[in-house]
């Protein structure tokens, strides 16, 4: 009953207060009437009633205390008082909200990416029961991918024992000059995932037959590529080089099991030839299954291992599968140690921005608290406890943090959109298509909940210490107007030092990244990559059932030779910009002191002309290339390693030290003569060679007609995009060109550099933002200090101090704090460099390693420290000018 009455009072407060006042008035009138009937005068009767009932206000308050939640009333009073205070100082409130929104927004941006990749499940039915089958392994805990044929996939789907249903899909991005992203799927793809269709029908199992394929368009593709046509179902679109009928349009929320954007899903007639020019080999599938009810992932792996032993008794090298590996497919990445290792540094970097913002707000709250010391002292003298005053000050901070959290939500949204624009238009990443879905997903409810929690924590960070310092003042001194500013001044200095420390850390990181990226880009790879294109090995381009690889290769070479270009077409095994894989076998060359393992390359004579590599000696002749003559060309480092005390030209190269295994493509002879020496070519990010230098290459001749395993290289003039379209058109007239068969060498190199450019953009943005917040914080502290010391400066100038001396005092105060903070930030950067020196990121097709950056670059450290100190001086310049504008006569007259 008591709880119900309290809830009833909250809902009908005004009516119940009026009823209570009316009831007290009636009781008072009854007491007066009783006294009048006893013979008292009206004045005595009224006085008797007042004595009997006491204070009406106290009676009303005691009655309300029985009905209401006292703490709700108290909180409501704090909120009303705080709002009235903000209305009197709107500039202060707006500044705190904007500053905190900026810091929270940066952290929310990092959390939005983490949420999209790790926390948010795919928009499918029961996503946490979906597991990708990665393959079987010969060793427990390892796996090797196992391509499925159509018959093997159907058998696996029926007899695996672990999954209630299994689907298959393969990405088949077009390489015919179009931008659509296509995924071929089995007929049960939409029904198993619960993908809703807005128009038409999904792809069904009856579509898994030979013949013409059908397609389902995504909602984005329906709007952008089909013009939001209401009659899109039944319409024919061209995917690659083949027209396909659209049978349905997916709902906006469905994107399958991909983090990247999918434009069209097409049926996968695996029982026949997949004859699109979309670059997919029909036997290669990604397989995802839904666990049977009650089945655990461990039990599913055991069941799949048993199935693999039954179906593949001699799977690889005469061995049976010893394990099967599953990976949950609920989201892009799972929440585990690897994902934490990737995102923890990102959270730390963006969290530092929030820390600087909180330090700024703490200084503002501290200055405001000092200005309110008389008000707080009077309230305490009237009976308010210090705990109640602390709650009042924290309530004010929380009321500022809540709108800041809402604003931060939109700051995160805008930052993500801006990052997408930067990536597409400035960084020009070749790996950005997978991120389109991520960038187009606005922060969701998880981000908002995260913001609310972070805003509450930030309130304690920036509000608690200033509130405690405000309440520590002695009551008598405050009421007399004597404000002791010693402890708050020290606190303000400590907050400024903390800001400068974090700012210096971020600026040093940006400086080191900038110099590292420039150093990597400016490295000489020993070859001219501009305008060079590669076509994948001829044996993978050709269709062996219809025409031999050699014949197709000859036709392709003849067709390319007829194009307008400066150099003839050539072939090679690996381009200068490719990284030498440590798994590749390397021949052992006999030297005077032992043996040396050096990578080798098979190239045609045109190779050195196409890549503009100068030769000392002579090039291979056409006859030597076609007959695989026993000649070789060595790079300068290889010559140094093989003949450290002599000239390599004319020397005999001995390959007789090989073991039983023979490297693929090695020439059949054992002794070759060196006919030329060329400059070293190296991979931009290669540090495997001696002292970080190129490790040397030995070149053997390769003929155009016999090297079906080699890639074709060609240099085109003019615009790269136009040249690519010309090559695609010419090659597609000869053979179906698979996806990623044609690549620009320069674009491939740019893709390796993309992580470093992205890191530079992030570090530069965070450094600039940290510098701006730090400068604004120092400016606010200096302005407040100058205002507090205005009388002191007037007296100093009246006693003969010049303007330069007063200006120097203000600047030195700021510079002193900046020097201390920059020193601590430099030490923190050195400590962080030791931790991150071997940090790597291997995710989503991006390989990134801190080994390629000189994290101890002294120029980066010096530049970061100098920039933050220059910012501190600049921020104190305007307050210093205000200090010298004081009129000494007016100051003394007021005193």
Kindly list the characteristics that best describe this protein.
895 residues, alpha+beta, 5 domains, ten-stranded mixed β-sheet, six-stranded mixed β-sheet, extended
Tell me what you see in this structure.
The chain has 28 helices and 24 strands. The strands form five sheets. Strands 1, 2, 3, 4, 5, 6, 7, 8, 9 and 10 form a ten-stranded mixed β-sheet that branches. Strands 15, 16, 17, 18, 19 and 20 form a six-stranded mixed β-sheet that branches. Strands 12-21-11-22 form a four-stranded antiparallel β-sheet.
Low-pLDDT segments:
270-283, 429-436, 481-486, 540-550, 687-692, 841-847
The profile of the biggest β sheet is:
10 strands, mixed
Content-based structural category: alpha+beta
Quickly count the helices. 28
Number of strands: 24
Taking Cα atoms only, what radius of gyration do you get, to the nearest Å? 38 Å
Distance between the termini: 65 Å
Overall shape: it is extended
What is the strand content? 5-15%
Mean pLDDT, to the nearest integer, reads: 77
Helix fraction by DSSP (H/I, runs of at least 4): 40-55%
Domain unit count: 5
Which helices and strands occur, and which strands form pairs?
Blueprint: H1 2-11, H2 13-37, H3 42-53, H4 56-67, H5 70-88, H6 90-119, E1 130-137, H7 150-159, E2 163-171, E3 182-185, H8 189-193, E4 197-200, E5 214-217, H9 219-224, E6 236-239, E7 242-250, E8 264-267, E9 286-291, H10 297-311, E10 323-328, H11 337-371, H12 373-381, H13 386-427, H14 436-440, H15 445-471, H16 475-479, H17 486-521, E11 532-535, H18 538-541, H19 549-561, E12 570-572, E13 588-591, E14 594-597, E15 600-603, H20 606-610, E16 615-617, H21 622-627, E17 631-635, H22 636-642, E18 652-654, E19 671-678, E20 698-701, E21 711-715, H23 720-732, E22 742-744, H24 745-788, H25 790-798, H26 803-836, E23 840-843, E24 846-849, H27 858-884, H28 888-894
Parallel strand pairs: 3-8, 5-7, 15-20, 17-19
Antiparallel strand pairs: 1-9, 1-10, 2-3, 2-9, 4-7, 5-8, 6-7, 11-21, 11-22, 12-21, 13-14, 16-19, 17-20, 18-19, 23-24
């Amino acid at each position: 009953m008591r709880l119900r009455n309290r809830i009833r009072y909250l809902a009908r407060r005004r009516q119940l207060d009026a009823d209570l006042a009316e009831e007290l008035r009636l009781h008072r009138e009854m007491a007066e009437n009783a006294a009048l009937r006893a013979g008292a005068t009206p004045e005595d009767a009224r006085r008797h009633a007042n004595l009997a009932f006491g204070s009406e206000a106290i009676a009303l308050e005691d009655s309300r205390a029985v009905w209401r939640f006292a703490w709700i009333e108290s909180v409501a009073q704090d909120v009303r008082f705080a709002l009235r205070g903000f209305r009197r100082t709107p500039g202060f409130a707006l500044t705190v909200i904007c500053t905190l929104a900026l810091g929270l927004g940066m952290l929310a941006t990092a959390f939005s990416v983490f949420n999209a990749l790790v926390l948010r499940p795919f928009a499918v039915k029961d996503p946490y029961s979906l597991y990708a089958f990665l393959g079987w392994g010969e060793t427990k805990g390892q796996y090797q991918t196992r391509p499925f044929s159509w018959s093997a996939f159907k058998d696996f789907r029926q007899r695996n024992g672990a999954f209630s249903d299994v689907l298959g899909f393969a990405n088949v991005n077009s390489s015919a000059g179009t931008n659509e992203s296509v995924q071929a799927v089995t007929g049960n793809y939409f029904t198993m995932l619960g993908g809703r269709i807005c128009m038409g029908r999904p792809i069904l199992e009856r579509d898994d037959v030979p013949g013409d394929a059908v397609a389902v368009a995504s909602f984005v593709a329906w709007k952008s590529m089909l013009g939001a046509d209401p009659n899109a179902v039944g319409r024919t679109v061209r995917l690659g080089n083949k027209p396909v009928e659209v049978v349905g349009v997916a709902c906006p929320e469905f994107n399958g099991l991909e983090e990247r954007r999918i434009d069209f899903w097409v049926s996968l007639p695996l029982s026949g030839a997949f004859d699109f020019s979309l670059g997919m080999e029909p036997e290669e599938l990604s397989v995802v299954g839904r666990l049977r009810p009650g089945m655990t992932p461990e039990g599913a792996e055991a069941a799949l291992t048993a199935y693999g032993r039954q179906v593949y008794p001699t799977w690889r090298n005469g061995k049976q599968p010893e394990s099967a590996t599953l990976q949950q497919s609920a989201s892009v990445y799972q929440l585990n140690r690897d994902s934490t290792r990737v995102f923890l540094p990102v959270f730390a970097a963006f969290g530092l921005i929030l820390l600087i913002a909180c330090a700024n707000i703490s200084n503002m709250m501290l200055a405001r608290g000092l200005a309110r010391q008389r008000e707080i002292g009077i309230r305490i003298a009237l009976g308010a406890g210090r705990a109640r005053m602390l709650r009042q000050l924290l309530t004010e901070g929380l009321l500022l943090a809540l709108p800041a959290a809402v604003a931060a939500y939109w700051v995160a949204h805008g930052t993500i959109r801006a990052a997408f624009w930067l990536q597409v238009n400035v960084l020009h990443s070749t790996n950005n298509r997978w991120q389109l879905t991520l960038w187009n997903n606005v922060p969701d409810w998880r981000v908002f909940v995260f913001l609310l929690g972070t805003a509450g924590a930030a309130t304690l960070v920036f509000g608690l210490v200033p509130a405690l310092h405000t309440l520590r003042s002695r009551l008598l001194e405050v009421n007399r107007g004597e404000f002791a500013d010693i402890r708050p001044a020290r606190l303000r200095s400590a907050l400024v030092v903390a800001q400068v420390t974090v700012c210096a850390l971020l600026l040093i990181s940006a400086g080191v990244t900038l110099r590292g990226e420039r150093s990597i880009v400016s490295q000489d790879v020993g070859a001219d990559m501009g305008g060079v294109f590669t076509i994948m090995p001829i044996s993978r381009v050709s269709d062996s059932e219809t025409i031999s690889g050699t014949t197709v290769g000859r036709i392709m070479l003849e067709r390319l030779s007829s194009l307008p270009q400066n150099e003839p077409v050539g072939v090679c095994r690996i381009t200068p910009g490719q990284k030498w894989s440590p798994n590749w076998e390397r021949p052992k060359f006999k030297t005077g002191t032992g043996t040396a393992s050096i990578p080798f390359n098979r190239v045609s004579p045109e190779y050195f002309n196409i890549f503009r590599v100068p030769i000392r000696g002579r090039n291979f002749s056409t006859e030597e290339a076609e007959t695989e003559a026993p000649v070789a060309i060595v790079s300068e480092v290889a010559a140094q390693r093989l003949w450290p005390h002599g000239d390599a030209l004319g020397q005999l190269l001995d390959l007789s030290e090989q073991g039983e295994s023979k490297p693929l493509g090695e020439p059949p002879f054992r002794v070759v003569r060196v006919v030329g020496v060329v400059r070293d070519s190296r991979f931009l990010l290669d540090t495997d060679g001696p002292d970080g230098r190129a490790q040397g290459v030995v070149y053997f001749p390769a003929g155009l007609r016999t090297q079906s395993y080699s890639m074709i290289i060609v240099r085109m003039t003019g615009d790269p995009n136009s040249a690519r379209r010309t090559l695609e058109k010419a090659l597609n007239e000869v053979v179906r060109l698979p996806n990623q068969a044609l690549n620009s060498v320069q674009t491939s190199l740019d893709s390796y550099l993309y992580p470093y450019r992205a890191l530079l953009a992030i570090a530069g943005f965070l450094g600039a933002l940290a510098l701006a917040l730090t400068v604004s914080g120092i400016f606010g502290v200096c302005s407040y200090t100058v205002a507090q010391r205005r009388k002191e400066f007037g007296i100093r100038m009246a006693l003969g101090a010049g303007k330069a001396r007063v200006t120097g005092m203000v600047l030195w105060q700021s510079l002193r704090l900046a020097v201390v903070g920059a020193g601590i930030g430099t030490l923190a950067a050195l400590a962080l460099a030791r931790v991150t020196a071997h940090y790597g990121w291997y995710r989503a097709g991006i390989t990134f390693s801190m080994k390629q950056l000189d994290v101890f670059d002294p120029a980066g450290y010096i530049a970061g420290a100098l920039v933050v100190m220059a910012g501190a001086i600049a921020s104190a310049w305007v307050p210093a000018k205000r200090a010298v504008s004081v009129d000494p006569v007016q100051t003394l007259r007021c005193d």
